[in-house]
Every structure is written in C-alpha cells, then in structure tokens.
Design the sequence.
C-alpha cells in the first residue's frame, strides 16, 4: 500500500489521457461488435395509435449509445444512484461508496456491460470497498438487502458475491487503493484561507474572501457527483477538488460575492501553479453531466439557476437492463 498518491498504483495504472481512454473503450466496442453484431438487442415497445396500443419489436443498434457506459449518461447515473441506495441502507461513509464507484468504472473499462450482471457488480464493488476501507459489511446481510432491491437479478446464494469478488479483483489486477478528492479539498481550503489573509489589502473585509462551511458542503456534494463522470480516470484528486470549488463558486454566491471570491481564488490558483487546462477539462466533465442530468441548456435556463436532478430517464434504463438479462436468460435456455 502506498501512502503517497504520486507513487501509488492509482496514478501509475489508473490515470489516463482522453485518447488512451478512447482507445481502451474502442477495443471493448470492437469485441462487443464481433460477438453481438449490429442489432444486438430486440425490445418490445408499446406504440399507441388512434384505436389501441400495438406492441412492436425495436432493434437496438450496437452503435447506439444505450448501455455503453462511456456514452450513456442514463446508465452512468442509474448505476451511481443504485450504488448510493445500497450504501445508504448500511449507513456507510461516503468514501466507501466513492471507492466502490471507482472500482465499477475501472471494471467497465475491461468488461462489457453486456457480459456481466450490473446488480452483482454494484453489490460486489460495495462489498470489496467496505473491506478495503476497513468497514466491512456482513456478506449475508448485503446479499439479503441487494436481493430485496433487485429480486429478479440477485440470487439467494450469497456465495455468488464471493465468486464475483475474485473476478473483480482479478480484473483490477489487485490494485485496490483509491485516492479521493475529499482530503485535498480540505487542504486547499486551508491553504486558500491562509493565502487570502496574507494577501488582503488594507481596508478590505476578509469575510468577503473567505469560504464558509456551507460552501465546503456544496463542494463536497459536487465531488460526490463527479463519480458519475470520467474525472477519476482522467484527473488527479486535487484537480477534481479545485474544480468542484470553482463550480460551487459559480452556483452558490451572488454576483458581487462571486466577483470577490472568484478573483481571490484565481489568484490562489495562479500562485499555486495548478494546471489550468486540467481544471477546465474537469469542470467541463461536470457541466456536461449536470446539463444532461437537469435537462438544462442555454436556451431554456441558465446553468447556474438550479440543479434539480430529476431529468434522466430511470425507467428507460431499468427497462433496457431487464430486457438485456431476460434476453440472455432465454438465449441460454
């Protein structure tokens, strides 16, 4: 185990450039195409006409975004919320849920969503993360709760989780240590506070520049949401932390407050020599997520008005996953 992020397996083996990530996912897509062909999934749809409803079969193309983790934000958000739901049932710390989400993302770089049961993947990632973060869950309790959430997809035999655990560890090459932006966020705020106090001019009110605890909570919430994106495969934890701070500034404060705090924060970033391009890239990942999640765009409302997270289509992705596993079970029979 490495106590230093800069010498850890997290940095050496699981931080990619965008081009590297695209190459990995392209290879996975080629494998899917070779195995399943173009129209890989047939689903029944109820189409309404003037007289009555007619059920027709629809072919899902392999080129469509559905059930491709890199392109389907419905799938990303759904898996994240299911993992959160399972973790909150056991009142686990957020860092355990976040670790599990990183395991899930790393696993889906090597295995197609079409080749595994995502509900077992969610359950096993949480089980493994709880052990790595030294807060283990009893496997029988976990299996019982998971089965109550997804009875069609989770077997009553809890050893299935153990089997998947070995598979998961193998695919992750036994690299279990994950570094998160939560600690860097606290350190950045501490250093920013010192910087603001040292650089304030005579006659200025220091309260106009400091960031309070409520702001820390908003930044923390944005970091939690960042696990839906590729940020934790592309950027260092401190980059994600500072990006969340800047985005919270945009969303939280009034124009006058924002001008004071943003100006001082920009001075701090320039002074600390943090990579600006990486911050821009990370913020773009987050904004794309929120624009999809809220259904907002420049035409209908400003991005910084609200983040009402109810625009993604959970029923559709749940239906697709059901049809996927139903189709596989029928084919196996």
Sequence:
């Amino acid at each position: 185990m490495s106590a230093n992020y800069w010498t850890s397996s997290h940095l050496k083996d699981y931080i990619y450039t965008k081009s590297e990530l695209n190459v990995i996912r392209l290879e996975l897509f080629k494998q899917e195409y070779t195995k399943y062909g173009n129209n890989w999934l047939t689903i029944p749809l109820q189409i309404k006409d003037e007289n009555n409803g007619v059920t027709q079969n629809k072919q899902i193309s392999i080129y469509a975004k559905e059930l491709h983790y890199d392109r389907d934000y419905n799938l990303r958000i759904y898996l994240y919320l299911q993992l959160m739901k399972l973790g909150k049932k056991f009142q686990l710390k957020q860092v355990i849920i976040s670790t599990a989400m990183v395991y899930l993302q790393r696993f889906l770089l090597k295995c197609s969503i079409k080749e595994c049961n995502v509900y077992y993947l969610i359950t096993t990632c949480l089980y493994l993360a709880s052990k790595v973060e030294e807060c283990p869950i009893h496997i029988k309790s976990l299996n019982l709760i998971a089965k109550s959430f997804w009875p069609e997809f989770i077997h009553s035999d809890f050893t299935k989780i153990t089997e998947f655990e070995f598979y998961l560890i193998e695919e992750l090459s036994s690299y279990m240590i994950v570094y998160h932006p939560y600690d860097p966020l606290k350190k950045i705020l501490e250093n920013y506070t010192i910087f603001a106090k040292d650089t304030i001019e005579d006659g200025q009110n220091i309260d106009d520049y400091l960031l309070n605890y409520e702001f820390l909570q908003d930044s923390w919430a944005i970091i939690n949401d960042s696990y839906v994106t590729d940020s934790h495969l592309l950027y260092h934890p401190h980059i994600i932390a500072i990006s969340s701070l800047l985005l919270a500034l945009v969303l939280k404060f009034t124009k006058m407050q924002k001008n004071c705090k943003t100006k001082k924060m920009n001075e701090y970033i320039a002074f600390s020599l943090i990579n600006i391009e990486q911050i821009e890239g990370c913020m773009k990942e987050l904004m794309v997520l929120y624009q999809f999640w809220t259904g907002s765009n420049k035409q209908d409302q400003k991005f910084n008005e609200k983040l009402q997270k109810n625009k993604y289509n959970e029923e559709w992705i749940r239906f697709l996953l059901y049809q996927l596993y139903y189709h596989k079970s029928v084919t196996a029979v």
Q: What stands out?
A: The chain has a mean pLDDT of 85. The first strand starts at residue 39 and ends at 48.
